[in-house]
Amino acid sequence: MSILRPPKPRLWIWFLWLACFYGVWTWLVTGLGLWQEAKDHWQMAVAMAVGSYAAGSTPMGGGTVGFPILVLLFGQPAELGRDFSFAVQSIGMTSASIFILSRRQPLAAAMLWGSIRGATLGVPLGIFLVAPWVPSLWIKVTFAVVWGSFGLLHLWRLREIASHQGMTDFSEKWDARVGLTIGLLAGASVVSVSGVGIDMVIYTVLVLVCRADLKIAIPTSVVIMAYASVVGILTKLCFTGVQPQVLGNWLAAAPIVALGAPLGAFVVELIGRKPTLLVVAALCVIQFIWTLSEERQTLGPSGIAVALLAVLLFLFGFERLRGWGARLVGEQTSRHRRGDEPGGLLQQHPGQEPPLP
Question: Does the pLDDT of residue 79 top 60, yes or no?
Answer without folding.
Answer: yes
